[in-house]
UniProtKB/TrEMBL annotation:
Residues 1-25 form the signal peptide. NCBIfam families: SgcJ/EcaC family oxidoreductase. One of its GO terms (molecular function) is calmodulin binding. SUPFAM superfamilies: NTF2-like. InterPro entries: Ca/CaM-dep_prot_kinase-assoc, NTF2-like_dom_sf, Steroid_delta5-4_isomerase, UCP028470_steroid_isom-rel. This is Calcium/calmodulin dependent protein kinase II Association. It comes from Caballeronia hypogeia.
Length: 155
């Protein structure tokens, strides 16, 4: 038996509304944010690096988040995987500075992307591209994705 789209539309509408709630369901309340507040989230993350405590760094990430790190080929999905990465990364005593950034704001979400430089305790420097995506969890901003990769071209 074949059904035409006009015949199926009422059925599809009921299925969609049942899956996502009715049209009168509660609406999302957007947490206000400014570029300055989102920029400060990098400072919060960078300050946690300076503590040398990998758990303090990992606490910046949402439970469901991804880290695509600068100096590792392995994506880090779990808190334990991120902890393992930062345990080794922090041994070098990294301090990051932003060289260029673009911030985009959405309802309860933000993107901070650009270029940063890491200086390490041994004097070495790594220039990299980065993207942090954040979500407001109702209490604070948390990182949902963090991509960082070394600059591909020599200066």
């Amino acid at each position: 038996m074949q059904y035409s789209l006009p015949t199926l539309f009422p059925v599809l509408a009921v299925v969609v509304l049942a899956a996502h709630g009715s049209a009168s369901a509660k609406t999302e309340v957007c947490h206000p944010a400014s570029d300055k507040q989102i920029a400060a989230l990098f400072d919060r993350w960078n300050d946690s690096l300076k503590t040398g405590d990998p758990q303090k760094v990992v606490d910046n990430y949402a439970p469901r988040s991804i880290l695509l790190p600068t100096v590792s080929n392995k994506p880090r999905l779990t808190a334990d995987e991120k902890l393992d990465y930062f345990k080794h990364f922090l041994e070098g005593k990294p301090v990051g500075t932003i060289d260029f950034r673009e911030i985009m704001l959405e309802c309860n979400a933000a993107i901070d992307a650009g270029l940063y430089t890491f200086k390490f305790g041994d004097g070495s420097v790594v220039k990299a591209r980065y993207t942090f995506t954040y979500v407001w969890n109702g209490h604070k901003w948390l990182i949902t994705s963090h991509h960082s990769s070394k600059m591909p071209e020599p200066e």
